[in-house]
Amino acid sequence: MDQAERYKKRLSGIRQYLRDRKLDGALFTSYGNRRYYSGFTGSLGYLLITDNTASMVVDKRYTTQAQEQSIHVQVIECSSDRLGSVAEMIHKAGVVRLVMEASLTLDEYFPLKEKLGSLELTYEQEYFLEQRMIKDDEEINLTKAAIHCAETAFEKTMPLLKLGMTEKDIADELAYQANKAGADGLSFDTIVGSGPRGALAHAFPTSKKIENGDMAVIDFGVFKNGYCSDMTRTLLFGDVSKDHKHIFDLVKEAQDRALEAIRPGVLAKEVEAAHRAVFLREGLDNFALRGLGHGIGIQIHECPQIVIGNETVLYPGMIFTLEPGLYFPNDCGVRTEDDVLVTENGVEDLSHTPHEIYIG
Ligand SMILES: [Mn+2]
């Protein structure tokens, strides 16, 4: 599939939506959707898709870049009245009924609404995000490359770790190694929580030193060529107690059960339930979070959400995380996270970093 075909296919999903709901145009304003439907990587742009046109208002900073990245889109450089240019684009396309993204902020919505006059406005979020759930070959390869980059950085960092280092030292080293391995940046702020701080599911790295017996939860990802990776490992420093190692083993078992449950046709909630069964069996469900994973792609959190009750059917091409965890306040936390791809026959685990890593 070449680039032209790729975008034609993506836009056809939106055009089907417009026809089904008797709408004339869709206005995309978020980074993720704008990028997915146009290829444009800039931070600001208003993309309008109608049944037979695709146009985008950008400011002068981005005119050349947008023309290069979005060859299937007519690029319009805005006047000093940015939203005025957006309204003009919408009027010129003959749109009467417009759907916008639910994430459009109020400070843009109200002035834009005024400029659009009598247009009928509605909003959508779920459908647009669901359009991005099944990745094409290029997206799968880009995601694999981002994962490989992060795992390379992780592998280079491991031999440098020792007792007495701080959480922040670990996060800094990972960031340095990620850049050396070719990352464009981190896909989110690295989480490092050691010892009792591991119980904070989103612990930010501090000057706390790693002590003998600590388990340290490290959640880390890179952004490369527009795609995100996401991985977590709980490192075992020195003499980890039997009780803590038991928790560690249960979390890994929960992930294994989830992995075994994945194949096309299965519901997201069934995968979630497969992992939770381990924690329920042990009477530890109260110490787990409410979800197991999330899609990754252009953004670090995408559909499908692998959470309790989600009836989304799994299809080949979906990529999401499996990240079970148990958190015991003031004691310890364990999480482990792989990125997986649903295949025609089952599932491919895209993460290859070992789970059980002892240090010191
Ligand atoms: Mn994650």
Low-confidence stretches: none
Q: What CATH architecture of the largest domain do you see?
A: Alpha-Beta Complex
Broad shape: elongated
Give the cofactors and ligands: manganese (II) ion
- Compute the average pLDDT: 97
CATH topology of the largest domain: Creatine Amidinohydrolase
Please report the total strand number as a whole number: 20
Strand content bin: 15-25%
Instruction: Report the CATH superfamily of the largest domain.
Output: Creatinase/methionine aminopeptidase superfamily
Tell me about the largest β-sheet.
6 strands, mixed
Structural class: alpha+beta
Helix content: 25-40%
For the CA atoms, what is the radius of gyration? 23 Å
- End-to-end gap: 49 Å
With strands numbered from the N-terminus, the spatial order across the biggest sheet is 4-3-2-1-5-6
| Assembly form of the protein | single chain
SSE sequence, one letter per element: HEHEEHEHEHEHHHEEEEEEHHEEEEEEEE
Number of domains: 2
What is the CATH C-level name of the largest domain?
Alpha Beta
**Tally of helical segments:** 10
Short description:
This protein is α+β, with helices and mostly antiparallel strands and 360 residues long.
Sum up the structure in keywords.
alpha+beta; 10 helices; 360 residues; six-stranded mixed beta sheet; Creatine Amidinohydrolase; binds manganese (II) ion; Creatine Amidinohydrolase, Chain A, domain 1; 2 domains; elongated; four-stranded mixed beta sheet
